[in-house]
Amino acid sequence: MRSFSLSTIRRNEDGVATVEFALWVTGFFMIVMVALDFGMFFIERGKVNEAVAASAVASFEEADNVNFGVLPNYVRSIADNQAITVAMSCNGVANSCTNLNRTCACLKTDGTYVAAACGNICTGPDVTGGSTAGYYLTIEADQGFNPVVLPAGLLSDTSVTQQATVRLQ
């Protein structure tokens, strides 16, 4: 009868290759899962970016008669995700977009707007030099992201947000 003392088990080399293989496979699997988390984050960000950009281009092409009511649905449809939160603003004012009686503004370097007469050359502090006052539409889309392995904070944020601003007038 064999005695199974701790020292005997430590010196036994039976099954070492199996244990080593199991450890390597587990480590490889974890590395692949982390890579997939990063990959999925960038794929989702790309989808949202493509949807916002395509909606901005569609708005630009129909600048005089933009259908603001369906723009959020365009973004959701192009991104193939109905859970995306879409916000629109014109000249920095949320939900104020219109095709009639548009008021123009100059875009400042910090992303804000200052009221100006349509077509006038923008002048003043922090205003984009040489530009003319216009009617600006900003589309912003936000989608949650849930990583599989990585802690949520490692990807800097668990939400994917993209925005585009286009001049309509």
Describe this protein's structure.
This protein is α+β, with helices and mostly antiparallel strands. It has a four-stranded antiparallel beta sheet. Strands 3-4 form a two-stranded antiparallel sheet. The chain is 36% helix and 19% strand. Helix 2 (16-61) runs antiparallel to helix 3 (71-79). The mean pLDDT is 83. It has one domain (6-167). The chain has helices spanning 6-11, 16-61, 71-79; strands at residues 85-90, 93-94, 105-107, 113-115, 136-144, 159-167. The N and C termini lie far apart (93 Å). The chain is built from three helices and six strands; from the N terminus they run H-H-H-E-E-E-E-E-E. The longest helix has 46 residues, at 16-61. A hairpin with a 5-residue loop joins strand 3 and strand 4 (113-115).
Note the main attributes of this structure.
TadE-like_dom; transmembrane; membrane; transmembrane helix; 169 residues; two-stranded antiparallel ribbon; Pilus assembly protein; alpha+beta
Count of distinct strands:
6
Unreliable runs: none
> Helical element count?
3
Strand order of the largest sheet: 2-1-5-6
Series of H and E elements: HHHEEEEEE
* Morphology: elongated
Question: Approximately what portion of the residues adopt beta-strand conformation?
Answer: 15-25%
Radius of gyration: 27 Å
Could you tell me how far the N terminus lies from the C terminus, measured between alpha carbons in angstroms?
A: 93 Å
Transmembrane segments: 21-43
Domain TadE-like: 15-56
Keywords: Membrane, Transmembrane, Transmembrane helix
Organism: Aurantiacibacter zhengii
